[in-house]
Amino acid sequence: MTDADWTPDVARLQAFDEAEWARVEAAFAGRLLSYVSRRIRDAEAREDVVQETFLGAVRGIGSFDPVYSFEQFIFGICRHRTIDQLRRQEIRGRGGDDEDSVSSLDLDAVASEDRTPSQIIRRTDMADRGRDLLAAALQEWVELTWSAGEMNRLMVVEGLLRGGMRNRDLWEPLGLRDEVSVAGIKFRALKKIRELLLAKPGAEEIAASLEGLAADADAPMDVQSVWRDRRVSCPSRRWIAGWLAGSLEPGPARFIAFHVDELGCEWCEANRDDLARAGEDGHAASLESVQGSSIRWLRSRAR
Fold first, then answer.
1. pLDDT, tens digit (0-9, with 9 covering 90-100), for 208-233
2. Chain-centre distance of CA 255, in angstroms?
3. Ramachandran region, residue 96 (left: φ > 0; alpha: ψ -120 to 50; beta: rest)
4. Alpha carbons 29 and 195: distance in angstroms, whole number
């Protein structure tokens, strides 16, 4: 396993193992800082957010839900800490005290990451179990499609179900014959996803709702938020590194470019930016200043 593939041992983290937490900081500081840097201009404030993220991770690791990856766990904390910081800056900015304050539009842009812009389906409440089952089926479909080398199909379905794009937005850029071709890909993909769902106990109601989605009708689930929040199509950091190095085959490289550059996946953008900035003096200095925050807190508890 390469460093890019490494994931922490959650049991060791929950036991407050200093060495494992130090490795977490070394592995994630850069990508978290890259994520925050796209949203907060002030350098010290960015570093504060990343430090608060690590502290939040230490304090919250006891309730870690294994349905998520550790990267999802820590990026979720980072996102909320970023919104908190933007709110503080906005309040200060109203008093005219902060030259680097952001406007309410900047705050809205980050906070609205929880909203669904897609008109493909209407957002309604869905039980956690249903979301888990749907995420598992979507992930399985993505893996099967990737393994088969069907990158055009993957881009079509991701554009529709994650990006909220319409048939007419996709057929020409992806080199398809017409909008009918896009609709056919969508129909077959949803049929397969439904089959994958039906193979899982308790998924009958969720699977049935996909029939309405395939017909562009309302469905009692938010597929887009599940696709995005569970990161079902996010390539691993190793694949992103290969894409930046130009060492991937055309199909995977084209999909990653679509996923990162066209759809703007904020998590993969952070990984890309961190990998691209590796070795920069300013970036290295920022990383050094944020690392060690969780270790200092762990040691303070032991006193």
1. 656 555 544 444 456 888 898 889 99
2. 16
3. left
4. 40
Which H or E element spans position 289? helix 281-290
Cα–Cα distance measured from residue 237 to residue 240, given in angstroms and rounded to the nearest whole number: 5
- 19-38 pLDDT, tens digit each: 999 999 989 999 999 999 88
d(CA 17, CA 9): 10
Rounded Cα gap, residues 189 and 257, in angstroms: 21
- Find where tokens 């089952």 sit: 133
Residue 219 token pair: 């469905």
CA distances from 247 to 2, 239, 250, 268 (A): 16, 9, 9, 18
pTM: 0.70
Q: Tell me the three-class secondary structure of 183-194, residue by residue.
A: HHHHHHHHHHHH
What pLDDT is recorded for position 25? Answer: 92
Tell me if 174 sits within 8 A of 152, measured CB to CB.
yes
Dist CA 269 CA 259 (whole Å):
9
List, in order, residues 6 or more apart from 280 with CB less than 8 Å away.
none
Rounded CA-CA distance 95/84 in Å is 18
Distance (Å, rounded) from C-alpha 133 to C-alpha 124? Answer: 16
Rounded to 10 degrees, the C-alpha dihedral 30/275/20/232 comes to 100
Rg for the chain, CA atoms, rounded: 21
Question: At 58, which amino acid appears?
Answer: V
Cα–Cα distance for residue pair 255/221, rounded to 1 Å: 26
Tokens encoding 196: 């994958």
